[in-house]
Amino acid sequence: MKNKQLWINHIKGLCICLVVIYHSVITFYPHLTTLPPGLTQYVAKSWIYLNLYLAPFRMPVFFFISGYLIHRYIEQVKWQACIDKRIWNIFYVLVLWGVLQWLGITLINQWLAPDMVRNPASNAAYSETLMQFAASMAKASTSLWYLYALVVYFLVFKALRAFKVPVLIALLGINVAISFMPLPWWGMNSVVRNMFYYGLGAWFGPQLMAWMKDFSFRQHPLICALVVIGSLALYLVNVPVVISVVSIFVIMKIFYTLDNWRESRPEAFLNIVGSNTIAIYTTHRIVIEALSLFTIARISQGQLSSQVVLGILLVYPFVSLAICTLIGLGFRKLSTTLFGDMFFSPPAKLVPAAPAR
Asked: Are 47 and 313 in contact (CB under 8 A)?
């Protein structure tokens, strides 16, 4: 990747880190039911609330960047040339890792928490039958819903590219409406809600990116202040779309400015993570399930001192992030070296390459 694009990769790295932290929090802190009143409960609740408040900043920029990076495929590349890279490759990883997560998390729960009751409809990974698994995957009720969304989004936005403005207006309205009338499936809610941000990137990404680079906060302080106040006010009444769009702009502006100040380096942590988002995204949920169940058991059984428990509560998401990152990167290396990367790339293409003329 060229240096001028590394700052975009850094944003992808930040986003996947936030995703791992999100799953680390929701699978750990809410299940610590034996914590005594006091500082430990306060720390646990603080992580839960922080996780909640980070929601408008986590996925919108991820999807905008994802849409922006495939703008050329949406506008210029013919359907046949898109099938493998933009549809089949992602669908293959979605199905393969959906099954691997289901099997892996089922075995982990049988081993570490055989008495814990899970709602099989809450996540495809907790399914008890093949039919439940298939139904949950079809409804995007899976930790891999981001991959589900990428396939659906590409098909929709490439097919409807002649109707950009009316489609985005409709998606904006749906984004607002779903905050008050959510669908019964949490994964599909996320897919529908984030479609607007992907569309902005896929259809208008280059124009918005150029505008962002030229925009100066110092030259428009009043406008910036009004936008921030307005977006916060709407967020407080459960309309997060404006603050999400603002966060996309601000995050990109910060990373672009930092890149101009000090050129991004290929060996930087966020660039390495951003270059391996699929490996970390697909593997982290299995790792987190094992890590959270093991740690919860140690804490619930009173095997650790109060000081150690407090220390774990303070840093658990960061430790989990480090472990998930190392395992994801290591597994990608193993997959590439021993299996021809078959865990992250399909072994065969659907559309054969055109013969050379």
From this structure: yes
| Mean pLDDT for the chain overall | 92
* pLDDT tens per residue, range 213-240: 999 888 889 999 999 999 999 999 999 9
Residue 158 structure tokens: 């490439």
What tens digit of pLDDT does each residue of 98-115 get? Answer: 999 999 999 999 999 888
Q: What is the pLDDT of residue 353?
A: 60
158-167 exposure pattern, b = at least 16 Cβ within 10 A, e = fewer: bebeeeeeeb
CB 141 within 8 A of CB 123: yes
Please indicate, yes or no, if residue 349 is contained in any of the structural domains.
no
Tokens 């480090």 sit at which residue? 322
Question: Residue 11: which of 53, 57, 60, 65 has the closest Cα?
Answer: 65
On whether the pTM is more than 0.90, the answer is yes
Give the per-residue pLDDT at 302: 83
136 Cβ contact list (under 8 Å, min separation 6) = 121, 123, 124, 127, 142
Domain assignment of residue 123, given as a range? 3-339
CA-based torsion, 42, 44, 47, 53: positive or negative: negative
Residue 8 resides in a domain: yes
DSSP state letter for 217: T
Alpha-carbon distance of 9 to 130, in angstroms, equals 37
**Which residue type does 114 have?**
P
Per-residue pLDDT of 261-307, as tens digits, reads 888 888 889 999 999 999 999 999 999 999 999 999 999 888 889 89
Q: Give the DSSP per-residue string, 115-168.
A: T----TTT-GGG-SSHHHHHHHHHTT-STTHHHHHHHHHHHHHHHTGGGHHHHH
Place of tokens 């898109």: 82
> Is pLDDT above 60 for 3?
no
Is 54's pLDDT higher than 60? yes
The b-or-e profile of 187-196 (16+ CB within 10 A means b, else e) is bbbbbbbbbb
Domain tally, the chain: 1
CA distance 212 to 231: 18
Q: With a cut of 80, say whether residue 40 has pLDDT above it.
A: yes
Distance CA 164, CA 287 (A): 40
Task: Specify if 348 maps to a domain.
Answer: no
Tell whether 345 is covered by a domain.
no
